[in-house]
Amino acid sequence: MRALTLKNPGQDPLLLVESVQDPVISANQVLVQVAAVGLCYHDIAVMNGTLARGVKENVVLGHEISGTIVEIGSGVENLQIGQKIVTSLNTFCGLCEMCMTNRDYRCQNAKGFGHGIDGGFAELIKLDSHHVSVIPESHNLIGACLYGCPIGVANEALKLQESFEIGDTVVIFGVGGGLGIHAAQIAVSKGANVISFTSSPNKLESLEKLPVGQVFLIDDFLDIPELVFALSEDQGAKVVFNPVGSAVFLNSLQSLSNRGKMIVTGEVYGNPVKFNLAEIIFRDAKILGSSGSGRSGIKDAITLVDENIVTPIVERQYGFSDILEAFHAVQNKEIIGRAVIIPD
User: Fold this and answer.
1) pLDDT (tens digit per residue) in 24-38
2) What is the pLDDT of residues 284-294, one digit of tens each?
3) What CATH number does residue 199 fall under?
4) What are phi and psi of 93, to 5 degrees?
5) Is residue 168 part of a domain?
6) What is this structure's pTM?
7) CA 45 to CA 127: how far, in whole Å?
8) C-beta separation of 145 from 36 below 8 A
9) What is the rounded end-to-end Cα distance, in angstroms, of the chain?
C-alpha cells in the first residue's frame, strides 16, 4: 500500500508517499480501507515542528479517519466486511479508570493516531475492533471523518457542566475553523444567542450564509467585549468557546457574564497569557480546558448529523501528492471548516 510519511518537519516539511507493506491484522483487529482523513491543526503543528514531544519518527499523520472495513480478524464478532466506520482519535485500553468512566480519550495507556503511532494518511490501516464506530450506510464518508474531531470535540466541550440554556449568549471564536464552525452550529441548534468571530476577511461572506449566529470580523478597531455586552442586553456571554487560545484569551475573559465560562479547546500560537485575576474573581467565572472525544462523543456526533443538527463542513479535498498545498492552505487560514486528505 501507499502511505504519506513525515520525514522532516519544518515550515517546508518533507513528506514522502512511500510504498510499504500492507498491514497484517491479528484476531481482534480489523483492516480498514481509508476513505478520508481530516487535516487537523494538530497535524499542522506536527508538520511545522511546533509539536514534537511524543511524535513517532517517520510518522504517518492523521487522526480523523473514516473508511470501510475490508478484513476482519477471527476473534471479531460485532463487525462486518463492508461496513462504514470512523475511528477513535487514539487507542485506549478499555480497562483503566479513565476508560471505565467514559473518558477513553484520556486513557492512561493511550497513543494518539498520527502522533504516537501511525495514523490515517495511508490507503489501509489496521485497528483494534473497539477503536472503530460503525456509521449509518447513508452517511457520506468524506464528512464522516470529522465525527470524532472536530464535531465530537466541540460537542463535548459545550456540554461541560451544563454550560448554557436556551436564550443564553454564547460567543464562538475561530468560527471559520473546524472546531468553531461546528461548535457554532451546535450552540445555534440549542437556542443560544450565538455571536461568532473570525479574523479571516476571506471567510466572512461564506460564514454569513451558514447557521453560525451573527458573524463579525476581528480587526484593530473592533471592541469585542463591548460588542458582546451590547448584543446580550449588557449581560455578557454565558459561554465563550475559545479554540484559538492566547490570541483571544483576554477578549474572551472580558466578554464573560457573571458566572460565565470560558472553554479553551486549542492554542494556535503557543504564547503565554497575562491577565488580572480580578477579571475572574468578580465575575465568579470559570476557565475550563477541553480536548478529545471518545466513543460516546462519536456516537453523539453521528446523531447530530443524522438529525440534521450539524453539517460537516469540508471545503477542500486534497490527495497525498497535494499535501504541501493543503499544509500551507490550512496554516494560512484559507480553509473554512476542514480540509480533507483523500488517498489518491
Assistant:
1) 999 999 999 999 999
2) 999 999 999 99
3) 3.90.180.10
4) -85, -30
5) yes
6) 0.96
7) 25
8) yes
9) 12
